[in-house]
Design goal:
The protein is α/β, with parallel strands linked by helices. It has 16 helices and 20 strands. The structure holds 1-O-alpha-D-glucopyranosyl-D-fructose and calcium ion. Calcium ion binds next to loops. Keywords: Cytoplasm, Glycosidase, Hydrolase.
Length: 559
């Protein structure tokens, strides 16, 4: 297996709108991030992944871009960006930018041109089709509700938008589109950024003919069989790699909904002719609703979670590289979803989850606030939500009688993307120290108890625990490169596995339950001299043949 800096790194994701506001307008910005670089350096992370900061009408908080080479005015200026990049590098960290090129904003000049006439030179930059009588060209539904097609009266044709109607899909079959994207990428790389996180990059190639999809909940057809891992996606990424990426020392991570192990081996293969790694989604789907959508409130089952994560561990081993994540700006808070956010167990379970993830093989990602054990928020009414996905789903699913309003509000409290988007909790002053103004979305009222200032001062905090985990990765290469094996796949409460490399053996044991549980370590670890690298409950000096794990206890033992 090749050794590279990005396999050895820990990545921290910043959602700029919610990170830190420097000028009191209630919206996080680049200078806010600049003011918190010391905090990130102290945490010990290597790479910052910055969610989009480009010019955008903000239909989807920056994932709808109207100019790829300009900074969103609310976030600052290009000078602010250059200063931020310089400072990140000066502190010995790296910066990875979000690349959103499956679609643009409908306010991007390419689209303004494209929609202006059927024979405009930019027409073929997007996916235009004739209607089917009075109906859209096919039955595809958009990820954010409604049809994936929008009728354009001016030219009497429909354009495709797999996300909102303000996010028209680019036509990657057009070689000029690919050249434009590659030029733009080079422009950023020449500025000195260290790579890209590529938004829904598994969706850029659509099956020719755009066939109807299977109808799921009686409303629209599922586009994914014809839009995910499409026929030319690897060809496009290989071209991107040849013409752009291979010329720089960068890390790339593909956000790849619908990716399978077989596909991941191509996207993120060891030969490196496409991307460095991908985000797989299988563990994000374990708590989906039986009707097939994400809106639900039953927690995922541990046995399934173990099977899923372990499958990715073993099946990519030596062939491709994993990304490890519990959450991001599209997912609920990790501790509320996979752990226990009650005051009694929050700290322990947040540390346990961190241990479980950081000891696996792959590059770990920390989503802002996760290192504090930040929790979901309990919004009571739909008017408190800001996220386009949540708002549209509420309207569509309750409007069609598929779910009742109280049901949907319950599901939103558990799964809405806004759970991850409430402002970062810096201290116990007004608005958690995020802004002196009116925050664009409500601050979680638990900020007096959960905030960075308090946790920096507390040696037993979740923050200090993450710091320790990150340091361990730097001192023990077995954590990065060791082989993985799951123990007791059918145990319903304990997630335990081993890592092995060059005569070293590491045991990671995590109790996912709120009760004491009995754990039987494998023979080869029992009363063998070694060292406990980290533990979150009881100091463990050795492994006994039978061990009682505290609620949400985690420990890592190395021999
Ligand atoms: O997300 C893609 C994606 O798969 C999401 O739509 C995901 O299914 C959903 O958020 C979970 O409910 C990326 C970005 O991360 C997301 O923020 C954007 O809204 C989306 O692409 C469109 O650019
Ligand atoms: Ca601001």
């Amino acid at each position: 297996m090749k050794k590279t800096w990005w396999k050895e790194s820990v990545v921290y994701q910043i959602y700029p709108r919610s990170f830190c506001d420097s000028n009191g307008d209630g919206i996080g910005d680049l200078n806010g991030i600049l003011s918190k670089l010391d905090y990130l350096k102290e945490l010990g992370i290597d790479v910052i992944w910055l969610s989009p900061v480009y010019q955008s009408p903000n239909d989807d908080n920056g994932y709808d871009i109207s100019d790829y080479q300009a900074i969103m005015a609310e976030f600052g200026t290009m000078e602010d960006f250059d200063r931020l990049l310089f400072q990140i590098h000066k502190l010995g960290m790296r910066l990875v930018m979000d690349l959103v090129v499956n679609h643009t904003s409908d306010e991007h000049p390419w689209f303004t041109e494209s929609r202006s006439s059927r024979d405009n030179p930019y027409r073929d930059y997007y996916i235009w089709r004739e209607g089917n009588g009075n109906c859209p060209p096919n039955n595809w539904g958009s990820v954010f509700g409604g049809s994936a097609w929008e009728f354009d009266e001016h030219t009497n044709m429909y354009y495709l938008h797999l996300f909102s109607k303000k996010q028209p899909d680019l036509n990657w079959e057009n070689p000029t589109v690919r050249e434009e994207v590659f030029q733009m990428m080079k422009w950023w790389l020449d500025k000195g950024i260290d790579g890209f996180r590529m938004d829904v990059i598994s969706m850029i190639s659509k099956t020719p003919g755009l066939p109807n999809g299977p109808v799921q909940n009686g409303l629209y057809g599922d586009a994914s069989p014809y839009t995910v891992n499409g026929p030319r996606v690897h060809e496009y990424l290989q071209q991107m790699n040849r013409e752009v990426l291979s010329r720089y020392d960068v890390m790339t991570v593909g956000e790849t909904p619908g990716v399978t192990v077989e596909e991941a081996r191509k996207y993120a293969g060891e030969e490196g002719d496409e991307l460095s790694m991908v985000f797989q989604f299988e563990h994000m789907g374990l708590d989906d609703h039986p009707l097939g959508f994400k809106w639900n409130d039953t927690p995922p089952k541990l046995v399934k979670l173990k099977a899923t994560l372990s499958k990715w561990q073993t099946e990519l081993a030596g062939k491709a590289w994993n990304s490890l994540y519990w959450s991001n700006h599209d997912q609920p808070r990790a501790v509320s979803r996979f752990g226990d956010d009650s005051p009694k167990h929050r700290v322990q379970s947040a540390k346990m989850l961190a241990t479980c993830l950081h000891m696996m093989q792959g590059t770990p990602y920390i989503y802002q606030g996760e290192e504090l054990g930040m929790t979901n928020i309990s919004f009571e009414t739909i008017s408190q939500y800001r996220d386009i996905e949540s708002l549209n789903a509420f309207r569509e699913l309750t409007g069609n009688g598929i779910l009742t309003q109280p049901e949907m509000l319950r599901y939103l409290r558990r799964k809405s993307r806004d759970n991850a988007r409430t402002p970062m909790q810096w201290d116990d002053t007004l608005n958690a120290g995020f802004t002196t103004g009116e925050p664009w979305i409500e601050v979680n009222p638990n900020y007096p108890q959960i905030n960075a200032k308090q946790q920096i001062a507390d040696p037993d905090s979740v923050y200090r625990y993450y710091q320790k985990l990150i340091r361990l990765r730097k001192t023990h290469r077995i954590i990065v490169y060791g082989s993985y094996e799951l123990l007791d796949p059918n145990d319903e409460t304990i997630f335990a596995y081993t890592r092995k490399m060059e005569g070293q053996k590491l045991l990671c044991a995590c109790n996912f339950s709120s009760r004491e549980e009995v754990f039987f370590p494998p023979e080869e670890f029992i009363v063998r001299p070694g060292v406990c690298l980290i533990d979150n409950a009881v100091a463990r000096y050795c492994c006994e043949s039978q061990m009682t794990l505290q609620p949400y206890e985690a420990f890592v033992y190395l021999i």
